[in-house]
Amino acid sequence: MKYALIGCGRIAVNHIKAVVNNNLKLTALCDIDPEQIERLVEKTKFQGDPERYTDYRKMLSEHPEISLAAIATESGCHAEIALFCIERGVNVIIEKPMALSMADADEIVKRASEKGVTVSVCHQNRFNPAVRELRKAIDAGRFGKISHGSVNVRWNRGKEYYDQAGWRGKWASDGGCLFNQCIHGIDLLRWLMGDEVDEVYGATKRRIHDYIECEDIGMAVVRFKNGALGTIEGTVNVYPKNLEETLYLFGEKGTVKLGGQATNRIEIWNFADEREEDKENQKLNEEAPNVYGNGHTALYADVIEALAKHRRPYVDAVAGRNAVEMILAVYRSSATGSPVKLPLEGCASTDFKGEFDKIEHK
């Protein structure tokens, strides 16, 4: 299968590893900065000689044989590039977030369905062994009635991080800590707790990073349609370094806590109906080299299999859309001071441009 990577920045190394591990044919690399491409090739020690492009439109025009493309550009470009690929019948893997507006997210879902194109979104933590075990326990009914769950992403990002790329921390190209750092946890919380959300009540602030446009802390309470409650805490204000990413799930017959750099470790695993596999799960600790975890290779493998078997990928376009919806609902709730009902329509990250400038130093 011939493949192209669009965007050769920080996360691109994980995509190249997934390409190599899944024996894909890397046909072309694309980035608006040619030096970025060469740095990626050098960093990964890639042995092939893919063609280099600075324009993805030209790349796909000159290589109609490409059937799978990954999009790892700045977030604000994801939807535009994805829709171009979909129109050309190219299957896509989109880095998170899938889009920064509900209009774009819904259009990707709609056009992919109409064109028969496979779209997967990089919520790769769903493939973590710890997360898979938790999902199995939920599906087996081991929790009984779910009471509540929470995700906590308590990280550190300083000025040097934002200075590395001019698009970071801006409403039109990135969003704040919820879109960039916390979206994996938000995806897991919604997915594991049934996906169907009634309303979201949230609050966001820019407390420390006065050199960015967006929030550096966001919190929310989520009401799920099954009656369960969820809480979200995402921040980059933790001193002096990343503290934790944790996911809790509480039910009448079970309690689980996942931790580690990328929810890759089981820290608490207690169930009323004790089983033999619980002994192994109680000490499950997958090694993760960084906050990105190991899931890209598994996600790519799933997409390849989905294409071969003509099925939906494990993390499809709807999953990507739902994570975007949750975050935009938090933003809208914070801006209006009121709970926001889902489904959410007509909302984009750019709607909140200047939001914190209006209230700064009050």
Explain the overall architecture.
The protein is α/β, with parallel strands linked by helices and 362 residues long. The chain has two domains: 2-124 and 296-316, 3-Layer(aba) Sandwich (Rossmann fold), CATH 3.40.50; 126-290 and 322-357, 2-Layer Sandwich (Dihydrodipicolinate Reductase, domain 2), CATH 3.30.360.10. It has helices spanning 12-21, 34-44, 56-62, 78-87, 102-115, 129-139, 159-163, 177-180, 183-192, 278-281, 295-309, 317-336, 355-359, and strands at residues 2-6, 25-30, 51-53, 68-71, 91-94, 119-121, 146-154, 197-205, 217-224, 229-235, 244-251, 254-259, 265-271, 340-341. An eight-stranded mixed beta sheet has the order 13-12-11-7-10-9-8-14. The protein has a six-stranded parallel beta sheet with strand order 3-2-1-4-5-6, sandwiched between helices. Helix 4 (78-87) runs parallel beside helix 5 (102-115), helix 5 (102-115) packs antiparallel against helix 12 and helix 9 packs across helix 12 (317-336). It is globular, with a radius of gyration of 20 Å. The N and C termini lie far apart (56 Å).
